[in-house]
Design goal:
Elements lengths: L15 E3 L1 H4 L11 E4 L2 E4 L4 H4 L14 H5 L9 H5 L10 H17 L1 E6 L3
Parallel strand pairs: 1-4
Antiparallel strand pairs: 2-3, 3-4
Bound molecules: protoporphyrin IX containing FE.
Length: 122
């Protein structure tokens, strides 16, 4: 898939509560919607397919709670079963600097993307 900017919303995504496992289906593969959770809220970032789509720079955040990675400005090897089974990350050990960095992303997501619900435990 080319990393171009698609002006594409996802009318099929209704506002609801999401578990990490449900969220994990929305990585944008097969050109489907892309969801990302940040600080307890779930955003439809399909408009940012050029960032988060398959093969794109920030694909590692797609379908996940990306809070810790964004806060710490880091990437990892991708979603794991252990991550899906674990409780929602409390982020309690993060530094003030990490939390400020995270809040900047929350600001961006709030302005740019549609919030489609809350992240909840299974
Ligand atoms: C060499 C380091 C990096 C470069 C050169 C870079 C570059 C960029 C650029 C050019 C944009 C687009 C800004 C715009 O639209 O105005 C962007 C957005 C973004 N970057 Fe980075 N970045 C880097 C590192 C990181 C890291 C470490 C993270 C997080 C772990 C990150 C997360 C993001 C996110 C979430 C966006 C917003 C995408 C969106 O609009 O949905 N970046 N970055």
């Amino acid at each position: 898939m080319e990393c171009i900017y698609h002006e594409q919303r996802s009318p099929q995504i209704r506002y609801k509560s999401w578990t990490k496992r449900e969220l994990s289906k929305y990585t944008g593969s097969d050109n489907g919607p892309i969801l990302i959770a940040v600080k307890g809220k779930v955003y439809d970032v399909s408009l940012g397919r050029g960032f988060y789509g398959t093969g794109c720079a920030y694909n590692v955040f797609a379908g996940r709670d990306a809070s810790r990675l964004l806060a710490t400005q880091s990437f990892d090897d991708g979603m794991t079963e252990a991550e899906l089974d674990a409780p929602i990350d409390s982020l309690q050990d993060l530094t003030d600097e990490d939390l400020e960095s995270l809040d900047a992303y929350v600001g961006l997501f709030t302005v740019k993307y549609q919030c489609v619900g809350d992240l909840i435990e299974d």
